[in-house]
Amino acid sequence: MYHHSGSVARPTAGSAVGVLEATGAAQDSDAMLFQRCTWCGTAMYHRLLCPVCQGSDLRTERSAGTGTVRHSTVVHRNSPAARNVSLIEMAEGFVVRGRVMGPLIGIHSGDRVRLSQAKDPVRGEPVFQLVDEPYRAWT
């Protein structure tokens, strides 16, 4: 945090300056942690500075784990089988890149997803599962 009486940046006591801390209720291994800027309230995922106001006073919060697919694409390179890479807009307002489990042709923009307990072991990205079955209208 910038100290107004001089040009020296000093961390304040108890602040999480760009670091995700697992404290309190956010210690669950399947929880998704994100930061929220204390100055402007912007939610972000794994950032050191706020992308809106460039503030460094960020507090760590726990996500509910629900979101909406903003964009999804199928990637064929660097893996033995095709996989999807999706941008998920979380309910708290931040966007995260991850993988959605399910049939590749059944994942579309606007689909609702929730965080799975699994995590991609190779890339370390969060893994989501569809809330609604993709072919629910066909049965």
From TrEMBL:
ChsH2 rubredoxin-like zinc ribbon domain mapped to chain residues: 33-58
InterPro entries per record: ChsH2_Znr, NA-bd_OB-fold, Thioester_dehydratase-like
UniProt cross-references to Pfam families, sorted A to Z: zf-ChsH2 (PF12172)
Source organism of the structure: Streptomyces cupreus
Protein name, per record: ChsH2 rubredoxin-like zinc ribbon domain-containing protein
